[in-house]
Amino acid sequence: MFLRAADLLPGPWRETLSAATMLGQSKTAYQAEIDTPCELIDFWRFNVHFARQILADQPISSPGVWNKLEYRSLEGFVYPITPFNFTAIAGNLPTAPALMGNTVDWKPSPTQAVAAYWTMKLLEAAGLPPGVINLVNGAGAEVSDVVLADPRVAGIHFTGSTATFQHLWRQVGNNIANYNSYPRLVGETGGKDFVLAHSSANPDTLTTALLRGAFDYQGQKCSAASRAFIPKSVWTKMGDDFIDQASTLEYGDVTDFSKFGGAVIDQRAFDRNADAIAHLSREAPDGGGDRRNRHPRHMGTH
Fold first, then answer.
1. How far apart are CA 260 and CA 258, in angstroms?
2. Is 115 in the same domain as 95?
3. Ramachandran angles phi, psi of 287, nearest 5°
4. Which of 48, 133, 287, 290 has the greatest number of C-beta atoms within 10 Å?
């Protein structure tokens, strides 16, 4: 069924999922394309491949003896909590445990609800039986407080902030005596990605890496470059070009293909960025950009 979904996605469902990702998460056509279909297709096909590898991994049988290992689902349901920034990750976290036989209650980010809905429709079109993956929309804390109090919770599959994952882990710990089994917790959390430029770095390549790494999808990726350490000898070769190119990048309506990017995901994200820019402007005035999201912001320190 998941291979069928992977075949449907680049065909009749390609434009639907790409458009939902563009309009719901403010991704450009390029960013939506590499997210879904490309990465989501890879997730589904690789997951099937690895599931087959796991099932084929059997103990050695001696003559006259047949040793066989059976894999079964967890005793309860798995609770995937998925982020806004990748439709592919949002489609992977609920389907991976479902592939291994688990019942799934999937809570997508409220700011990714449009693409999550259409991902479910695609899975249903591919033959997903009712009740295997259950889409549960709502604010994070309100939904999780109810779900994590259920004794049938068997696992959490999470991508998001470190603080949120620690909070979920703490809730599971507080409820541990009430569960029918010990829930498995699998989580990927964020970090501060950086670029460290060596003196041998190609100036043009470094400039492109910094622009794409920091400003693609408005910097809203776990892999986004948020800091760069560049020797003065390298900066003198590419600094002016980097600043000039950064000043030409424009953000706006993602249906306007001349724009480099769209808006940040919501008002809270905008306010957080605006506060950081205001703080850094006082601490490091050597920078440039535009508070109203039309151009990227860069700061220089010495």
1. 7
2. yes
3. -160, -175
4. 133
- Could you list the active site residues? 188, 222
Per the listing, tokens 């059997």 go with 58
Joined together, the tokens standing for residue 147 give 């779900």
Asked if the model's pLDDT at residue 282 lies above 90, the reply is: no
In this prediction, residues 172-193 reach a mean pLDDT of: 94
Using the predicted structure, report yes or no on whether residue 300 has a pLDDT greater than 80: no
Q: Residue 68: which residues within 8 A CB-CB, separation 6 or more?
A: 58, 59
Express each pLDDT in 112-121 by its tens digit: 999 999 999 9
Looking at this protein, which amino acid is placed at residue 130?
Answer: P
Cα–Cα distance for residue pair 178/250, rounded to 1 Å: 52
Q: How confident is the model at residue 301 (pLDDT cuts 50, 70, 90)?
A: low
**What is the extent of the structural domain holding 253?**
193-299
Query: Average pLDDT, stretch 210-238?
Result: 93
Give yes or no: residues 182 and 216 share one domain: no
The pLDDT assigned to 192 comes to: 79
Asked if 169 and 201 sit in the same domain, the reply is: no
Quickly list DSSP for 181-232. Answer: S--EEEEEE---EEEE--TT--HHHHHHHHHHHHHGGGG-STT-EEEEE--H
CA distance readout (Å), 229 to 15, 237, 264, 299, 301: 40, 14, 25, 12, 10
